Amino acid sequence: MSSTLTPTGGSAITPGRPAVSLRSMRPRYGEMAVRLIFRIAAWITIVITIGIVIALLEPSLEFFAEVPLGDFLFGDRWAPRFADASFGVLPLVSATAWTTVIALIVAIPLGLGAAVFLSEYASSGVRKVLKPILEILAGIPTVVYGLFALQFVQSTVFRDWLQLETGAFSVLAAGLVMGVMIIPTIASISEDSMSAVPLGMRQGSAALGANKMQTTLRVVFPAALSGIIAAIVLGVSRAVGETMIVAIAAGSQARIVGGPLEQGQTMTGFIANAALGDSRVGSIEYNTLFAVGLLLFAITLVINAIAIQIVRRYREAY
Amino acid sequence: MSSTITTSLGGHIRGATVRGRARGGDTSPKSILFLVALWFSLFVAFSFLIVLIVTTVIDGWPRFDLRLFTEYPAADPEEAGARPAILGSIWVIITTALLAIPLGVAAAVHMEEFADKKNWFNRIVELNIQNLAAVPSIVYGLLALAFLVLMGVQNRNIVIAGAFTLSLLILPVIIIATREALRAVPMEIRQGSLALGATELQTVMRQTLPASVPGIATGSILALSRALGEAAPLLLLGALVFVSFDPNGLLSGYTTMPIQIFNWVGRPQEGFAILASATSILLLGILLAMNALAIIIRNRYQQRW
User: Fold this and answer.
1) Which of A76, A301, B9, B268 sits at a 20 to 30 Å CA gap from A234?
2) Which residues of chain A does B256 touch, with a Cβ-Cβ cutoff of 8 Å?
3) How far is the C-alpha of A224 from the C-alpha of A317, rounded, in Å?
C-alpha cells in the first residue's frame, strides 16, 4: 500500500507534477515511532518461534547427550522415573496414534457431512443458525470434554450400558470425544473450500443431467479436494496436540496400546502428568519433558507445513 | 437444481428428461440416502453437544450453589468451593487481554497496512503466524517454562506468568482475525482519507482501524474464550496447587477454573467429581455467553461494503 499510494516527493520536476513535494517538509517523528512499534509487534511473532525452538532444543540436547536418539525413537519401554530408567518413546507414540486415528474416524465423515450439508443443501437462513451452533463445539473447554469422556462415555456408556470389559480409562473414549471436538475444524475449512467452487460448475453438471448428489460428489467435492485435505490435515494436528482430554480420559500408564479399550499415555498426556510432579530443573526428568515436546512440535510442524503447501498449491485453481 | 432446469427446457425433449429422471433424480433412493447421511452428521454433532451440556448440568447441579462461589478448596468436598479459581481466571484473562490484544492488533496493522507483502521477510512472518496458530498449546507451556527458568524465576505460578503464556497462545489467533477485519475495509476509504491530506498513520488510526473494530472484537472474544478454557500450558508452570487465598495482584499465586476442574477430576471421592461438574457448568455458561456475544457483534455491527 505504501508504495502505491504515497505521493513520491522526488527532487526532479516532472511534467504534470507540482514543483514542490507533497510530503511535509517536517519529518513526523511521532508517526515514525508508532510505526516502529507496530513493526516490532509483528517481529515478536518470529521471536516467539525462535524462542520455542531454542527452548525445546536446549534441554533436549542435554537429554540426547544421555539417551541415544535411536533408543528414544525406537525403544518400546517408557519408564523415565524408575530406578531402572528407560526412555523408549514408542508407547507414548502408540497411544497418540490410537487416539488420533479414532478421532479422525469420527471427525472426517461427520465433519465432511456437515460441510456438504451447509455448503450445498442448506439455505442461507438455515446455515446462519446451524453454523454458530456447530462452532460452539470448538469453543467448549477441553477439560470439560475430558470430564465428559471419563464420566459419561467411559464410565456410564461403555461400562454400565454396553458392559464392555474396560478399566477406568480407554483410548477409545478419549478418541471419540476428541473426534467430536475437531468436527468444527474439519467442517468449517471444508465448507469454505466447497463454497469457493464456482456456481457455473454446478450448473454445468446439472445441465448434463446430473442430480444434486452426483453434482456434489463428482464435481464440487473433487474441485474442493485441496481445501478438504488441508482441513483434515489440520484436524490431525489438533488431535495430535490435544492434551487435557487424553490426560483425563486416556489413562496414565505408558505401555504399547494393543486395542481401543486399553488405556495408554499419549505424548501430550505424559508432558501434562510429568509437569504435576516436581522435576528439578536440569534433571533428566525435566529434560525428558522437552525431548517429548520437541518430538510433538516436530510432528505438528511437518503436518502443518503439508497443509499450508496443499492449500497454497491448489488455492487459485478457480 | 436439476428439476428447475429440466422443466424450463420445454416439451420437445421431454423424453430425455424422463430418461434422466429414471437414472436418478433428486428423489431417487440413493439421493435420499445421501441427504439422510448428511442430516445424520449434523444430528450426531448436535446431539453430542446437547448430551454433554445436559449430563454436565445434571452431574454438577447439586453443588452449583452459593458455596461454589464463596468457599475455598478443602479436603472435604462438602466444604470446598472454587472461589480462588474463579477469581484466578478473572485475573489471568484480564491480564492476557491487556497483553495480547494491543500486541496482536499492532502486529496485524503493520502486516496489513504498512509492510511490503512481496518482501521475503514479511512473507516468512506471515507463514510463521499460520504455523504458530497450529502449535499445540502445551508446547507454549514448555516455552514459558524454559523462559522463566532462564530468567531465574523461582515461583512460576504467578498471574503474570500465566497471562504471558496464554498471550503467546492466542496472539496468532488475534493477528489473523484482525488482518481479516482490516482486509475487509475497502481501499476507497483509505484513498479518500489520504486524498484529504491525512497521513498514512492518521488514516489507519481514524478510518481503517475504527471501521474494523467489530471484526477485531469478535476475533478477540473468541481468542480469549479459548484462553479461558485452556489448562495444559498452565499445568507446566505449576498452577495445579492448593490455593486457599484470593489472588490479589500480578505476582500473586493463582489457580484457574479449568485447572481446578482437572484437579478435582483426579480425586477418588464422589463429591469432588460433582464439584468438577459444577465448576464446568459455570465455565460452560461463561464461554457460551462469550461465544454468543461474539456472534451478536459479528451479525449486528459488522459493516458490509
Assistant:
1) A76
2) none
3) 10
Distance CA A253, CA A234 (A): 28
The verdict on A186 touching B (C-beta cutoff 8 Å) is no
CB-count burial class (<10 Å; 0-12, 13-18, 19+) for A112: buried
Q: What is the CATH number of the domain that holds A92?
A: 1.10.3720.10
Give the gap in angstroms from C-alpha B248 to the nearest C-alpha of chain A. 24
Give the number of other Cβ atoms within 10 Å of residue A304's Cβ: 22
pTM score, two decimals?
Answer: 0.86
Name the residue among A121, A289, A297 with its Cβ closest to that of B35: A121
* DSSP three-state, residue B254: coil
Cα angle for residues B91, B96, B98 (degrees, 5° grid): 100
Selected from 3.40.50.11540, 3.40.50.2300, 3.10.20.740, 1.10.3720.10, the CATH number assigned to the domain covering B66-301 reads 1.10.3720.10
A271·B236 Cβ contact <8 A: yes
Residue range(s) of every CATH 1.10.3720.10 domain in chain B: 66-301
B72 DSSP assignment: P
The answer to whether B1 contacts A147, with C-beta atoms less than 8 Å apart, is: no
Alpha carbon distances (Å) from A250 to B28, B78, B285: 44, 28, 26
